[in-house]
Amino acid sequence: MSTIELAPRLSADGFRQELFTRGLLFATGVDGLYGRSATFESLVDAVDRLIGRLSADDKAEIMRFPPIMTRSGFEASGYFKNMPQLVGTVHCFCGDDREHKRVLACTPEEGGWTAAQQPADVVLTPASCYPVYPIIAARGRLPEEGWLVDSSSYCFRREPSIDPARMQMFRQREQVCFGTPERIRAFQSHWMSRALEMFRLMGLPATTDLANDPFFGRPGLLMANGQRSQRLKFEILVPISDPDRLSACGSFNYHVHHFADAYGISGADGEAAHTGCAGFGLERVALALLRQHGFDIEAWPEAVRTTLWPRA
Q: Where is the Aminoacyl-transfer RNA synthetases class-II family profile domain (predicted)?
């Protein structure tokens, strides 16, 4: 077998090129934006189904979303204040025929066809949990035992990169927990243990570590330090593009009462509820599997294949 077959031995550049050469991903000319093949999609779907099987007994409410959310809901979250560099907005043409003709005549220096675009009432979703909070808030107080939602959507983050693990548009599968601080901490701990076992079943060398979000600017450094000092965010890490450097495939977050304050989510006692989420980047897990086990899925260890595609 040649080294081209052994994904773990490839450099980061070699791994990326093989994904294109083998037709698993399709380059579009924009870094971080890729088409996906049937094989790659089947692998993403298998990972998604595995997460669903392992969490089925949680009896979470299922919510599925498109890759856009309401602009009002997004603005309430404070995301733009904290991470403006990642935001993607939606703009639309709202003019008449005369305005259309004027814009078509605009030079590139004048803005071209984008000159008359106006912000829409939707934005690109940054994380699959974000559309959940306003929906839960609108229902009123939480039940005594809290609430649990299983959410999923395509997400967008403006991070152009040649690293295939850093896609601008990707899918997240999350569980979002609402309740008391004790409930959220227990949820976070449970999912960290569950995720390590899930990655073990997939034959992936995973570890967890303390982390922080990429908050923007000088104030962001203080926020990141505070997030780490309070142990609010952990990530599960595996080798993906660079075999010598770990990448996050999932995270386990405790938001305290940030989203409760933003959207008005109340616990059964009327006080601001606490929230947390556990989420996985499905494409990243799929890429980690290809990096670890090679590009020929039929040649993967039987135990891994059975975990992802269990026999009926």
A: 155-310
Cα 56 vs. chain centroid, distance in angstroms? 20
Query: What is the gyration radius of the CA atoms in the chain, in angstroms?
Result: 21
Q: Concatenate the DSSP letters of all residues of 64-84 into one string.
A: E--SEEEHHHHHHHTHHHH-G
The pTM of this model reads: 0.93
Residue carrying structure tokens 């809290």: 146
Phi-psi region of 280 (alpha: psi -120 to 50; beta: other; left: phi over 0): beta
pLDDT at 6: 56
> 257: closest CA among 272, 244, 277?
272
Q: Which two tokens stand for residue 73?
A: 């809901």
As a whole number of angstroms, the distance between CA 4 and CA 198 comes to: 28
Residue 228 sits at φ, ψ, to 5 deg, of -75, -40
Encode pLDDT of 124-167 as tens digits: 999 999 999 999 999 999 999 999 999 999 999 999 999 999 99
Distance, CA of 170 to CA of 271 (rounded, Å): 35
Q: Which domains occur in the chain, in start order?
A: 3-83+126-308 (3.30.930.10), 89-124 (no CATH)
CA 174 – CA 104 distance, rounded (Å): 43
How many degrees, rounded to 5, is the angle at CA 32 between CA 30 and CA 34? Answer: 80
